[in-house]
Amino acid sequence: MGNVPCPIYLPFPIMHIDGRSAQQLTKLGFWAGHRNSRIRVILAREWENDTELDISSNRISRAIGPLVYQKKYYETKFCICPGGSQVNSARIADSIHYGCVPVILSDYYDLPFNDILDWSKFSVILKESDVYRLKYILKEISDEEFVALHNNLVKVQKHFQWNTPPNKYDAFHMVMYELWLRRHVIKY
Predict the structure, then answer these.
(1) Is the confidence at residue 87, as pLDDT, over 70?
(2) Residue 9: pLDDT band by 50, 70, 90 thresholds?
(3) Backbone φ, ψ for residue 142 (5° rounding)
(4) Which domain does 142 fall in, by range?
(5) 82 preceded by a cis bond (ω within 30 of 0)
(6) Where in the numbering of this chain does the Exostosin GT47 domain appear (predicted)?
(7) Residue ranges of the alpha helices (H) in 48-170?
(8) Number of structural domains found in the chain
(9) Which of 30, 35, 84, 125 makes an SS bond possible with 54, Cβ 3.0 to 4.6 Å?
């Protein structure tokens, strides 16, 4: 048999989020990605030259330095998660992992564990039409509200982490519970 290439999946780099205050976060919002949907085109056009929102219509290349993409998540209060051409974007998971409050900017998004977790407690959910007022909506969120969102985000991080073997209340258990909740809907 010939050699078969095997993809290598590396775990998220660990960056500690404990002890960060709202004052230590240097950017109001962050998004980098391709303009592969209407909402992303508008987001980039409206905000890519703004000084408080770090909006880039190109993905950040790993060639520009180690962990640059991750550091941007880590240094930002709100991470913009616009709908794209596919529903498999890792931005929401990245935001949660790095402790950056996700801003869900989509009219049609079925969020993970939506039947279990109250997303309004640890994220900001906006309609696509809010893209034009994005900066002003985020600036209206008080430090107290942000701290509550961020603290709740830290609490739910464990529910989005996969472990081997599974840990209590991690992503594996959340998926199993979600399936159990839907057991009456599934036809055998």
Answers:
(1) no
(2) very low
(3) -70, 165
(4) 25-157
(5) no
(6) 28-140
(7) 68-74, 91-97, 134-139, 143-156
(8) 1
(9) 30
Are 89 and 39 in contact by the 8 Å Cβ rule? The answer is no
Contact between residue 103 and residue 124 where contact means Cβ atoms under 8 Å apart:
yes
R_g of the chain, CA atoms, integer Å: 18
CATH number, domain with residue 89: 3.40.50.2000
Residue 78 lies in a domain: yes
Taking the C-alpha atoms of residue 95 and residue 29, their distance in angstroms, rounded to an integer, is 11
Contact present, 176 and 113 (Cβ < 8 Å): no
Amino acid symbol at 177: Y
* Strand pairing class (124-126; 101-105): parallel
Domain contains 9 = no
Q: What pTM was computed for the model? A: 0.83
Is the separation of the CB atoms in 123 and 102 below 8 Å? yes
Residue 57 burial class via C-beta count within 10 angstroms: exposed 0-12, middle 13-18, buried 19 and up: middle
Longest dimension (CA), the chain: 61
In a domain, 93, yes or no: yes
- Give strand ranges (E) for the chain: 27-32, 53-56, 76-82, 101-105, 124-126
- Cβ atoms within 10 Å of 6's Cβ, excluding its own: 6
Residue 44 inside a domain? The answer is yes
Phi, psi values for residue 153, rounded to 5°: -60, -45
Joined together, the tokens standing for residue 26 give 């240097």
